[in-house]
């Protein structure tokens, strides 16, 4: 799934995950991070946050990498003070 995202095929990776869920398979921490990354790349930050929350509800402890991936996505899209500062460029 990560390779799909890196090649700009986030939709395919997300569809693949939905199929896994339909089959009753559960995700691990790494899979959740990949999903967060996919939604962030698409600019769908609400879904990225939802995946993060789903991860916690499923009893999977978010790693530092999960936090960093979500924060990076928020910054890329100007949804944090740091992200907004970066989008304005240097003073």
TrEMBL record:
Database matches in InterPro entries: PPR_rpt, TPR-like_helical_dom_sf
Protein name as it appears in the record: Pentatricopeptide repeat-containing protein
PANTHER family: PENTATRICOPEPTIDE REPEAT-CONTAINING PROTEIN 3, MITOCHONDRIAL
Annotated family: Belongs to the PPR family. P subfamily.
Keywords, in A-Z order: Repeat
Matching Gene3D superfamilies: Tetratricopeptide repeat domain
Start-end of each PPR repeat: 28-62
Pfam families the record matches: PPR_2
